[in-house]
Amino acid sequence: MWSRDFLFGAATAAYQIEGAVHADGRHPSIWDAFCLVPGTVHNGDSGEVACDHYNRWETDLQLLVDLGFDAYRFSVSWTRVMNVDGTPNHRGLDFYKRLIEQLERRGLQRFLTLYHWDLPQHLQDRGGWLSRDTSFRFAEYADLLSRELTGGVNAWTTLNEPYCSAYLGHATGRHAPGMKCVQYAVDAMHHLLLGHGVASAAIRANDKAPIGLVSNVNAVVPKSNSAADAHAATLAYAHANTWVLDPLLLGTYPAELKELWPGVAAPVRAGDMAAIATRMDYLGINYYFRAQVQADAAAGYVEVPMDGVEHTQMGWVVYPAGLRDLLTEFKHRYPGLPPIYITENGMASDDKVVDGRVGDEQRLRYLNSHIAAVDQAMRSGVQVKGYFAWSLLDNFEWSYGYEKRFGVVHVDYATQRRTPKDSALAMKAFLERRRRGA
Ligand code: IFM
Q1: Angle at Cα 124 formed by Cα 399 and Cα 266, nearest 5°?
Q2: Using 50, 70 and 90 to split pLDDT, how confident is the model at 42?
Q3: What CATH superfamily classification does 7-436 receive?
Q4: Can you give the pTM of this predicted structure?
């Protein structure tokens, strides 16, 4: 059923796994700073050590090989590879060069994300994503990386989940840099998307590999059949999904945003929307859950809990059909929709190693049912080229710290021992069967 051209991979991100935050000239990012603010991260955790992947990358690469994955999606830490003065940091670059070289040697495709939320703190000190200048600093970083790593990468991702950088970082304060103002979130989103546009042009000048952006998307359901709740769902859908996708694929921000945030507008200048809507070779989709919403006079919509349905350790509702539906909706909404990779999908559970085994049966069901939903979307004509489980390893789950475990491989943080969970072993068996054509 699954052709050998369809890639199955696993994903990670630099700050969530690397640790070694002071090694080889790395300087602080906004997440290093945010974690130091009391009360921001559960249990006072930080990415200081994380999975110590910076020192254990060879073991982790062997895990990818042993589990039979076709591809690995990872991100580069901007503050490891570019000095504060903009010059290259070759010690940091060498880390990624070694990783890429060994992945290639072992036959794994390399999906590289430039920005998975770890903006250099020195750029934050000059305004961060609230400043238009940051878009162009991002393009310089993209230029550096694509010159240094040219030929080694199978797919470039400019940004991972700009929704989270913009909204969680600037409106709710749950993520770095911890701001709480909707106008800031709208400004940050615009500069992130502009950064994507100008960075894409820089990469394209240096390297031939496909370039795309990864967006998280949510399924949305109204709480009742009332017209008010149905309308609330359209607002929530615009907020969660089309705020990012419309500018990229239609060159406009969705009209619903004006109703959601009256008086708030993006700082658009002439030429920006064309730069943002630059050709994407693929779109990365991260999908986790469905949200239920109802109308709210002040906020437009509010999210309300759903009873009687399956949840994960995050409290997220399990709804595989949402992935199928979103993919088919996007195909209809966006005539120029490029091929899609599911760049993240997975769930957190409170996994424990018992007698050397991790019985994560809920994750196994979750992954299987979502892969089946991708298959359904493909059968209805959506072009999907790969699926990446989030995540290869248990890791630093941002403001939730280490309590939430998303890995298909368990990490014992006291010993750094890795134990493939049952879901990883099932995936391995599935990938072996596929290889044999069974
Ligand atoms: O861990 C995160 C990841 O960094 C981005 N996408 C969602 C994951 C789970 O919350």
Answers
A1: 90
A2: very high
A3: Glycosidases (3.20.20.80)
A4: 0.98
